[in-house]
Amino acid sequence: MELAHRLKSALVEGELSMVYQPLIDVRSGQIKGMEALVRWKHPEYGFISPAQFIPMAEESGQIVELTNWTLWQACSVSPGMRADGGSAIVPVAVNISPVYFQRDDFVDQIRHVLKKTGVDPDQLQIEITEGVLLKEQQQAVTKLTELRRMGVVISLDDFGTGYSSLSYLKNLPIDKVKLDRSFVVDVTTSEADAELVRGVIEIVHNLNMVVVIEGVETAEQASLLSLLGSDLFQGYLFSRPLTACDMQALIRNCC
Ligand code: G
Ligand code: G
Ligand code: MN
Ligand code: NA
Q1: Whole-model pTM above 0.80?
Q2: Residue ranges of the EAL domain (predicted)?
Q3: Does 208 fall in a domain?
Q4: How far apart are CA 206 and CA 72, in angstroms?
Q5: For 203-237, what is each residue's pLDDT tens digit?
Q6: Which of 38, 71, 96, 217 most suits a substitution to test ligand 1, by most atoms within 8 Å of the C-beta?
Q7: How far lies 102's CA from each of 89, 107, 141, 176, in Å?
Q8: Is 115 domain-assigned?
């Protein structure tokens, strides 16, 4: 209760910050994107996980202000993140919770932030979960289609958890599927898990979508997942989430 209340002032007090984790191209090893992740440093309790305070923010309605802020942050750092000697901008992906997605002004908000920051729509990506599709599926598809038409790339996050079903994937206007890290944990020791991942990758590719593997922590996992056909990796093996400044330095050194 106390925490939920404190979250309201955390934004104002500057206790929230963003970190960025790179997405690595499996074949070239280059940084092809980054995911923006929010952090809350509470003056007494220290760092509180978004896994804890995002649900609270969704319940209290604070998620609107919080997501607006993450979008501004992400779009503000985006132009500084250049690879390939300065020409190619590394796009930044923001997590969009279902509560925010389902609001009528969602697409307008994205358009507004892009316009105000001058960021190209193809520099911003969004990550949604299947939760956005539980209600008003047709409306969800309409919003995604509109964003995509603007040039915003859409990822389906945490794929393989919850209500996952491969059958609806083909009806969704999405570009990337992020396989949940629970698929990775035993991939090198369980033949069944490896075959499952191979199958999912094949299906996603048949739908002309890109496969991101999350939670890659060891070189063994990376080499097997590469053989299984993954396109992009994200995980501690390559980098932990970094401050904008550290992320910029990493991009400069890599490219
Ligand atoms: O970064 P970390 O692993 O602690 O994140 C835990 C959970 O919080 C993940 O499910 C992640 O998607 C979510 N999360 C992190 N940052 C944000 C954010 O800015 N917005 C939303 N909606 N979720 C976030
Ligand atoms: O739910 P979502 O996929 O948005 O959550 C992403 C979170 O996963 C990041 O916030 C990050 O803290 C966490 N994460 C990223 N890479 C790894 C990893 O290699 N191992 C583990 N355990 N967590 C990771
Ligand atoms: Mn995510
Ligand atoms: Na995920």
Answers
A1: yes
A2: 1-255
A3: yes
A4: 35
A5: 999 999 999 999 999 999 999 999 999 999 999 99
A6: 38
A7: 29, 10, 11, 20
A8: yes
